[in-house]
Design brief:
alpha+beta, 9-stranded mixed sheet, 305 residues, 24% strand, 10 helices
């Protein structure tokens, strides 16, 4: 790592909803929330055995990497795309690989489970700190996504145009975050040259664990935050904050994208113009799963989230 120390994210235990809104959501600051999701059935029920038994025959989209294709030197967006291939597997097959061959880095990333696994809806009530915000906009990829993968997965550094909660159900994840005001200058977001639709808009070309300071000198001036999310905890990732996510264990996670009414009013009409453009781009990218990088971020705003 290029940094000797990292800033720490504040952890709150069951904060009042109005306090989260006032001090973190409205100010677009990250925070880790603990002790608020014990009522979710998923926290008691979910395991690899549970998914294999209930949904093992369901087909899922899996990001596949062979042994040695991930790690420092391959964790930039370029390295990620260079070695990635997309494969359809039965969920039970993926779970067996996670148990028997975790070095292969097979990852069900950003899976829209509410459509394909409707039985999971009863396991995940609305997130208590997102339920009063907008969780669905026609044409925008919002809502909740499921992640199941081995220890060592590394999502390349990127930004999301919507705030989101990353919640751990099984295992731990480490997240590095970079304030939004540093993103364009220090992370070089948008300077990843790629022919297909909007990858260059959202990803950083910098390898977090092995940066090339000759090519990306401003990265040394970042002031990153570091946080570990334990099972039952949620991390609020504000819109436009750079972040990369590393799994520390075999992991099952849920990401929940939403937006507040004040944020939406601030972003309109550029946001809706972007949604329309991306809808047309979506038609052109049918069948181009490998080009998507599998991170499935929601559409960006006019401010290049």
């Amino acid at each position: 790592m290029p940094y000797d120390e990292f800033l720490q994210i504040e952890t709150l235990v069951r904060p009042r909803e109005e306090d989260f809104q006032k001090y973190f959501m409205a100010r677009e600051r990250p925070v880790k929330i603990a002790g608020a999701l014990g009522h979710w059935p998923a926290m008691q029920k979910w395991s690899l055995d549970y998914f294999q038994e209930k949904f093992g025959d369901e087909s899922v989209r899996v990001e596949c990497f062979e042994a040695g294709q991930r790690g420092p030197g391959n964790n930039s967006a370029q390295g990620y795309l260079k070695n990635q291939r997309i494969q359809k597997l039965k969920l039970g097959e993926l779970i067996q690989i996670l148990r028997d061959q975790p070095e292969l880095m097979y990852y069900m990333a950003s899976h829209p489970f509410r459509k394909s696994f409707p039985g999971l809806r009863e396991d995940l009530p609305a997130h208590p700190y997102a339920r009063r915000h907008i969780r669905r906009i026609p044409g925008a990829q919002m809502g909740s996504y499921l992640w199941i993968g081995p220890k060592g997965t590394h999502s390349p550094m990127h930004i999301d145009p919507m705030p989101n909660f990353l919640t751990q159900v099984i295992g731990r994840k480490k997240v590095y975050l970079f304030p939004s005001e540093q993103v364009r200058k220090n992370l070089y977001i948008g300077q990843f040259e790629r022919a297909t639709y909007t990858v260059a808009d959202l990803f950083s070309p910098v390898d977090m664990e092995n940066p090339d300071f000759d090519k990306y000198p401003n990265f040394r001036y970042c002031t990153p935050y570091e946080v570990v999310i334990e099972p039952g905890e949620s991390l609020h990732i504000p819109r436009n904050w750079g972040h990369c996510v590393i799994s520390m264990d075999v992991s099952i996670s849920v990401s929940t994208f939403f937006i507040s009414y004040p944020q939406l009013f601030k972003l309109a009409p550029g946001f809706f113009g972007d949604v329309v453009k991306r809808a047309f781009a979506g038609r052109r990218r049918n069948g181009m799963d490998n080009e998507r990088a599998g991170l499935n971020p929601p559409p960006r705003s006019g401010n290049a989230s």
